[in-house]
Specification:
With 197 residues, this protein is mostly helical. It has 2 domains: 45 residues, Homeodomain-like (Arc Repressor Mutant, subunit A, Orthogonal Bundle); 120 residues, Tetracycline Repressor, domain 2 (Orthogonal Bundle), CATH 1.10.357.10. It is built from 9 helices and no strands. α1 crosses α4 and α4 runs parallel beside α7.
Length: 197
């Protein structure tokens, strides 16, 4: 049940950081369904009211923390070439998916999405939306530079770029060898119909 945040105290950044870390650890160890506000507060060394001053409910807290963690790991890079942008973007995607905590959290979030899609829809959009916006901006720059065709199917292109990494690391749980990114970039350039591929 959602509660209205209480109190008018100034939110202390160090307390927010402690709570954020506690949420990530609780998600990794307990999973979405078993995570409790009490456990997060205890791990962070704060009262439950400190959590409710920041978020109205457990769902809001998880969505906020996971979104912030994920979106900050989707930097917008502009190396001047599509090849360079793809390389950096794919490396950051691999770093995100193989993060020691997040790699334990993501499978549970996907399972929760299947169990209760109404709870997870906002989280899915909050994480995926900004990451796709960064990817679309990268592809549009490449179109402007003449590296990609103007009639590029943007939705399909974005899927083509992210899906192999997700499939390999999360579904197959296979490693990304040292040359994996370079091989994948070369393949993606051909798949996208890049002029310089």
């Amino acid at each position: 049940m959602a509660r209205t945040p209480t109190g008018a105290a100034v939110l202390q950044p160090e307390v927010t950081q402690a709570i954020t870390e506690a949420v990530m650890w609780e998600l990794a160890e307990q999973g979405y369904g078993r995570l409790s506000m009490e456990a997060v507060a205890k791990r962070a060394g704060v009262s439950k009211s400190a959590l409710y001053r920041r978020w109205a409910s457990k769902d809001h807290m998880i969505a906020s923390v996971v979104t912030e963690f994920s979106v900050t790991r989707a930097p917008e890079v502009d190396t001047g070439t599509l090849r360079g942008d793809l390389r950096e973007t794919m490396r950051s995607l691999i770093d995100w998916l193989t993060h020691p905590l997040f790699s334990r959290i993501l499978p549970d979030l996907i399972a929760e999405d299947a169990r209760a899609p109404e709870h997870a829809r906002g989280l899915r959009e909050a994480i995926g939306g900004p990451r796709r916006e960064v990817g679309e901006a990268m592809l549009r720059r490449a179109i402007t530079r003449g590296e990609l065709p103007e009639d590029l199917d943007m939705e399909l292109a974005l899927d083509v770029l992210a899906a192999p990494i997700y499939w390999r690391l999360v579904v197959r749980m296979a490693p990304a060898e040292p040359d994996y990114v370079d091989r994948l970039v070369a393949y993606a350039l051909r798949a996208l119909g890049a002029q310089s591929a």
